[in-house]
Amino acid sequence: MCHDECCEGAEHGCCMDSFLQVGHPAPKFDLEGYFKGEKRRFSLDDYKGKWTVLFFYPLDFTFVCPTELVELSKRHKELEELNAQALGVSVDSVYSHEAWLKELGEFEYPLLSDMTKETSLDYEVLLEQQGIALRGVFIISPDGILKSMTVNDLEIGRSVDEILRVLEALQTGELCPVGWKKGDKTLGSA
For residue 80, is pLDDT > 50? Predict the structure, then answer.
């Protein structure tokens, strides 16, 4: 995503290819995170060679978010079996993540802090006036290519079943018809 003032005038055309798009490299990030009692930096480059399920959520200590995040943690082994790593991102601090997880219990994946909101902006999920992110899920291939993106409004929780289904379909490398599930026939090579 371009953060230059030149984008204000479409006539400049300076940012025509800077929009987030499936099939293009996923925006890089380097964020402080919290995972199992440890605070450290996490970047997309840390997961080269693995599928990355990057998901944004509005805020810690809210109503819908824990339902999604807890379910994703419960199903983390399924992601591991698919050579995938989940990463949660919100605009909260790592200290907020730490306090929240004292209530919810530790997750099987890191929670990252996007306090500058740059990563939420890069992934085009930032609600600038509210200063929080929409519920976005981005599946990134082991070589850093954005393969799928889904964004929900604040009120709608995401389906972990659907995240896993899409990841499995992408990993076939083949054409998958509507409603395809692991074990179903594909439509042949893509």
Answer: yes
